[in-house]
Amino acid sequence: MKAVILDGIKKFKIDEINEPVVDGEKVIIEVSKSGICGSDIHYWVSGEPKGLVMGHEFVGKVIDSGNRLDLNVGNRVTALPISPCGKCEACVNGNVQFCPETWSHAVGLSLDNPGGLTKKIAVRSDMVIKIPDQVSDDEAALVEPLAVGLHAAHLGRIAVGDDVLVIGGGIIGLASAEFAKKEGASYVALTETNPLRGKKAIDLKVVDEYYNALDKDLPAKLIEKTKGGFDVVIECVGNEAAINSAFTMVKPGGIVVLVGVSTSAVAIYSTLAVMKELVVQGSIAYTYNEFNACLKLIADKKIDALKFIDDVVSFEDVQKAYERLTSGSDSAVKILVAPKK
Ligand SMILES: NC(=O)c1ccc[n+]([C@@H]2O[C@H](COP(=O)([O-])OP(=O)(O)OC[C@H]3O[C@@H](n4cnc5c(N)ncnc54)[C@H](O)[C@@H]3O)[C@@H](O)[C@H]2O)c1
Ligand SMILES: [Zn+2]
Ligand SMILES: [Zn+2]
Q1: Closest residue (by CA) to atom 15 of ligand 1?
Q2: What CATH superfamily classification does 149-282 receive?
Q3: Which tens digit of pLDDT belongs to each residue from 61-71?
Q4: Is 42 a pocket residue for ligand 1 (Cβ < 6 Å)?
């Protein structure tokens, strides 16, 4: 079957891969949609690992229900793409996101488990979640990135009335901002280097204000505006400039949530964290409960996931979609891929 395969630095090829094998355990899903994630962009930029079939934000129809007696052929499902061991302390406590095994066989993030950029995928049955009828495929494809934002907002321990700064207005920043508001923040600001993404965040009413991250006077302006700095800063970029701006603009005793991923070491002004006694909180993925909570919020119309979707493209247009998402001069934050398009 056809798949979009990572084939080098900023390069994909479309080629045939083997269909997943029915084994009576895993659920076999015919992919309907699969989102392109900011993390996928890191793989695309590095070209590694060659042969990877990405797509960990997928939705589709069951074609074999494996060992899930509650699922039928034709049911619409999504899944947590991760592969937690289920036995370690993290897993037992519900923190599947930092189980040491979680990423080793993750769907769309490991060579042995192709993701949604193909037609049929095999997914660990305990990670598969049925989609309620009132949730469309497009909405369900947004559950995974929204859950990343929900987890970050939870770890920011946002209190009612807090001033929150989100750095980076990709889908992860926008989702974090949306949940920061839901957790009770009274003011949510965004800094972005791409003005079109900044404007979009305002148009979508996800943030109160947007500021140009390249403005040298910005830290002083925002520290003055917030009378000493933000209570919580959620960093959704991962580069040196962004992380240091988080340390600069958070108030003494505040919380910095690091969500952005860097593929190499970054130089940080750790003395800022020392002098301000900052809480520096890493945030990875989501718990099982947070993933389900996002699906429920969409089903209950408490969150509009569709507003984040900019385009749906075919396999042939995946390369162009990646170029668009990394151009720095396009407002698009989420592009879905449809095998049938
Ligand atoms: N921790 C997790 O669980 C998790 C999950 C998904 C993604 N991520 C990571 O989070 C980051 C964001 O993901 P995304 O999908 O939103 O990516 P994205 O690339 O779409 O968004 C990043 C945004 O940051 C902006 N930016 C760049 N430099 C900046 C700066 N100095 N200040 C402010 N903005 C700046 C870019 O213009 C871009 O809009 C990525 O590093 C991704 O790998 C982490
Ligand atoms: Zn993702
Ligand atoms: Zn585990």
Answers
A1: 38
A2: NAD(P)-binding Rossmann-like Domain (3.40.50.720)
A3: 999 999 999 99
A4: yes
